[in-house]
Amino acid sequence: MAKTIKFRLDGTAVEALEGETVLEAAERAGLRIPHYCWHKALGNPGNCRMCVVEVEGAPKPQAACRLPAKEGLVVRSASPASRRAQSAALELHLVDHPLDCPVCDQAGECGLQDYYMDIGRYPSAMREDKAHAAKRVPVGPHIMLDQERCILCTRCARFVSQVSKSHELGIFGRGHNEAVALVPGRVLDNPYSGCLADVCPVGALTDRDFRFQVRVWYLDGADSVCPGCSRGCGIRVHTSTRRPWHNKGRRLARLKPRFTEVNGHWICDEGRYGYADFDTDRLGKVMRLKDPSAELGWDVVCDEVAVAIRQGMLKDPAGLAVVASGGLSNEDWRAFRSLFVDALKLERFLFAPEPDQVGEQDELLRRRDKVPNLEGGKAAGFGTQIKSLDWDGLAGEIESGKVWGLYVVDRDPVKVWGERGRALAEGLSLLVCQGPRKGLTGGLAHYRLPATDWLEEAGSFTNFQGQVQTYLPALKPLGAARPDWDIFSALEKAVNG
Amino acid sequence: MSPFTPEQEKVLQGWAARYPAPLMGLGEALRQVQEWHRCVTDEDEDYLAEFFGVPRSRIREVATFFPSYTQKPTGRHRIGLCRGLSCSLAGSQSMCACLEKKLGIKDGETSADGRFSLETMECLGACDQGPALLVNDELKGAATEESISRLLEELK
Amino acid sequence: MTKLLTAHFDEPMLHELETFRRLGGYEGLKKALALGREKVVEEVKRSNLRGLGGAGFPAGMKWSTVPSQAQDPGPRYVVVNCDESEPGCFKDRVLVTRAPHALIEGLLVAMYAVDSEQGFIFIRGEYGVQHRILQKALSEARAAGLIPAPSSIDLMRGGGAYISGLDTALLETMEGKKAWPRQPPPFPTAKGLLGRPTVVNNVETLCMVPHIVLKGGDWFAKLGTAKSGGTFLFSISGHVERPGVYEFPMGTPLKEILAAAGGVKGGRKLKAVIPGGVSTPVLTADELDTPMDFEGPRAKGTFLGAGGVIVLDETADMVMVAHNIERFLAHESCGQCTPCRQGSYWHERILERGLSGGGTAEDLATLERAGENITGKVICALGDTVGVVTRALMKKFPEDFKARFPERRG
Q: Potential cystine with C311: which of A191, A252, C240, C303 (Cβ 3.0-4.6 Å)?
């Protein structure tokens, strides 16, 4: 147990851990001292001078981010003198700031705006022409740089040197000619580049994907977990649903990292930008597509599918195969097992990754498996007692007539099989497609069962370290979509009928 | 391709080996490169980054911080004019006008033939001899119209 | 009057080892080696020798905070700060030009005192001639066996940044980084160059040391005032008859120093004196009785600094002076702290507008307020200086400012 140090901040007793600064301890205690340059994961260079505080017995104000917490220290961050000093530091940050808030995406979540309202509110005395610098510089695929808005807190430069270790950016020049800029010839394209928009406390580095999409005050948010790989990074989902006539009805505005022990402060670009087509190709109706095609209710479709399964299994109980996804939640996996293993006693399962579900892995966050919940599947026996078929093997069994029916959950085998996919699908006497998206398989299925995607349901994923993390719904289900586990349960009832 | 000759590379290696840590030689290496190329180019920065085994941004931060190193070529003769307080009191502003006229370039520019560049500088530490000039790396005191004419003649 | 460093300045060959030795050079080193480290540090402590680069930190105190080899085994360094860049100061240039061996001797004593085998002389890049003089002097000293192995002294040149003259920024520069000052603690004597204990001393400070060793700390202390021992080199420039370096005992009234330099040029009337370089607020013509040691100018709201005395006669426009100084600070601000980076440039632009006819009385209030918001709230002494001199000038010469920043109606 680390030694704790007690000091007072604005009359409140604060406990600091040994080695902590006053600012760190205050943040942990939920007490806010203004700051720009300090970032929990990027250090305390002490250059913005926003966190200056009065310390009893000290001759001049101290930067709280550089001030080691000491037993009995009496710190005043909200006294008139401290507020004056902080407001003065703010004024100097704004001397050459363009004040282009009306066209700045950061507006509404900008450190300059926030502190101006909190501790500023002075009349401007700046009468000189503002210094100009480069604006709208697309420094990388995801990030736009505006040097005029930059306050040179150096967080971005520290990120590329300490976290991504990619070193694309630096603080070049000196004094008032200093600027954040790319190293000539480089592009800001490290796998974590989106984090620069997060660490930038102002509108100097903004997210190109989010640029001009929606004002942040129209956003709603929910805590979720990134399904992009088996790491399971904590994310905050920002949605825009209050003005559906805007932005072509795009509901998912952006994903932001949410601090957890699993991912710290960061998420990768693959995860952050992997869901831009979240609302495309979605299934919303429960459909029978053959003899004759019709929109059905859930009761009817469950009965029909149950009958089709039972009839087929009477002839060949082993000829029904199930394709499952590593994207299923723990809740889904349990209901999945209950239906297909315990009730129907099926033997043929495929949960191997699609070719594009295996990718790059690095030492920071990214994992090779680009699905979130292989561990949850393992806990339900898939990948342990129950082995997976491979894609070619399954195709061969369909061709040879060993498999007459295929139940596909949130996957697109027709796409995986390429040219022969269509023939394979057409050779089946039962093809059920359950999932949030239609894909190629959905176009050839006998039944289409719309399921919610992860942002529309609550659930949990187990990451590669065995960490179980829950996620909450951020959006409403589309149409008649239901969570996968709910569909499996309903179908199990019908099967047991 | 290396932007330096094998002899120059040897000189750089000398600087990297001279001090207790290789990177302590960076400043002198940059001074050397500036002397050879009259500026520090992108290729030079790349080479030095590789040479010292540090990210290019580290080299560039230093190369753009110190005014001794430039990103655009200076003239073969680099003329600095002090604008510090004592030299200003001694009339450095009118010497600046004089230099601009005689060289046909403005403060901060390089002549078309690449012979001269002119830059006003902060205090050169020659306040007793204002207005002071720094010609290449030599301080010259008490500039007058005549002394400037003589100097430029000598440098031709 | 006692002169220590400039006593033999009339010797044309003083820069050569032979002449320097003939006049008693390197005797201090010899005696130091005989006295032993502790005694050397003790004498320097007794001498009240202050850091003559401007900070005034007691030199012996600095040395005594270096941990011993037993406490922190490994290399330790002594760095000579010859990055003299404060406008108005040029004494280090003159010292190195005239008596390079005096510096080398002082450095060798310091290295011995703090048990260091490696000394560095960091010299500003613009002192090319002086760099060559030191190179030559060092090889003379080496050849004469004055720097016996494993001890060594090496030179390094700066890249043209005033801020490199600040000790922690100097160390950053030497390590091959941009000169962004560090934020002590730890102080350089604990963790300096390459994280090792390092003493950074000014040229003049070290030049004084052999004299202290030879004649004793008490003798040196008595030359000066109660808290500032010895003599001090004043660099005098501006509107003065004979600009140059003048050595006086600490505490000599400013009046005497000006008189030695021949007084105001052309017999014009004195308006003000900047006592210690442009970072130090001005004294008026009525304040010439100020004793020039580390304490005297403080009583008048200014500093001895590095002794860069700039004389301003009645023709000086104080708005021009303020603009020149703030422009200097803006140009030299390292850009690390926002208040200094932005504040210095803001000052420069306001004063520039005043000079070009666009000033109003409101600007004076802004200068007053913005400057006070920077001093004491930034990392280093350069930032602390932004606006300070302007405010002093505004206070002492309000008419100059009113003329450039008039009340305007409508």
A: C240
A214-233 average pLDDT score: 97
Closest CA relative to residue C391, chosen from C406, C369, C376: C369
Task: Give the CATH fold of the A4-94 domain.
Answer: Ubiquitin-like (UB roll) (3.10.20)
How far are the Cα atoms of A106, A190, C102 from residue C210, in angstroms, in the given order? 62, 57, 8
The reply to whether B124 and B89 lie within a common domain is: yes
Residue B1 within a domain: no
Instruction: Give the residue extent of every domain in chain A.
Output: 4-94, 129-273, 287-496
Closest CA to A37 of A190, A186, A152: A152
For residue C153, list its beta bridge partners. Answer: C119
Flag whether pLDDT at B112 surpasses 90.
yes
CA B99 to chain centre: 17
Q: Are residues B89 and B146 in the same domain?
A: yes
Task: Look at C156 and B62 and tell me if their CB atoms are within 8 Å.
Answer: no
CB < 8 Å to C369, chain A: 125
- A419: region left, alpha or beta (phi > 0 left; psi from -120 to 50 alpha): alpha
- Amino acid code (one letter) for C254: L
Q: Please, is C227 exposed, middle or buried when counting C-beta atoms within 10 Å of its C-beta (0-12, 13-18, 19+)?
A: middle
> Considering only residues 3 to 42 of chain B, which have any Cβ-Cβ distance to chain A shorter than 8 Å?
42
**What's the first-to-final CA gap in chain B, in angstroms?**
34
With an 8 Å Cβ cutoff, are A183 and B65 in contact?
no
Residue C203 identity: V
> Which residue has 């803006």 as its token pair?
C330
* CB < 8 Å to C177, chain B: 23, 58, 61-62
Residues C161 and A218: their CA atoms lie apart, in Å, by 49
Number of domains in chain B: 2
Give the Cα separation of C338 and C374 in Å (integer): 9
Q: B90 and B150, same structural domain?
A: yes
A60 vs C contacts (CB less than 8 Å): 376-377
Which ranges in C216-337 belong to alpha helices (H)? 217-223, 254-260, 296-299, 318-332
Confidence of residue A1 (pLDDT cuts 50, 70, 90): low
Which stretch of DSSP H or E encloses residue C283?
strand C283-284
In order along its 410 residues, chain C shows pLDDT tens digits of 799 999 999 999 999 999 999 999 999 999 999 999 999 999 999 999 999 999 999 999 999 999 999 999 999 999 999 999 999 999 999 999 999 999 999 999 999 999 999 999 999 999 999 999 999 999 999 999 999 999 999 999 999 999 999 999 999 999 999 999 999 999 999 999 999 999 999 999 999 999 999 999 999 999 999 999 999 999 999 999 999 999 999 999 999 999 999 999 999 999 999 999 999 999 999 999 999 999 999 999 999 999 999 999 999 999 999 999 999 999 999 999 999 999 999 999 999 999 999 999 999 999 999 988 899 999 999 999 999 999 999 999 999 999 999 998 75
Give the type of residue at A355: P
Q: Identify the pLDDT of residue A2.
A: 67
Please tell me whether residues B85 and B25 are part of one structural domain. Answer: no
Helix or strand (DSSP H, E) at B62: helix B56-65
- pLDDT band at A155; cut points 50, 70, 90: very high
DSSP summary character for residue A108:
T
Distance CA A48, CA A11 (A): 25
Q: Are C74 and C116 in contact (CB under 8 A)?
A: no
Q: What is the structure's pLDDT at C276?
A: 97
Radius of gyration of chain A (CA): 28
* Domain span including residue B85: 77-155
Q: What is the CA radius of gyration of chain B?
A: 17
Residue of chain A minimizing CA distance to B60:
A172
Architecture of domain A287-496: 3-Layer(aba) Sandwich (3.40)
- Residue identified by tokens 């070529």 is B73
Residue of A nearest to B43 (CA): A184
Residue B117 lies in a domain: yes
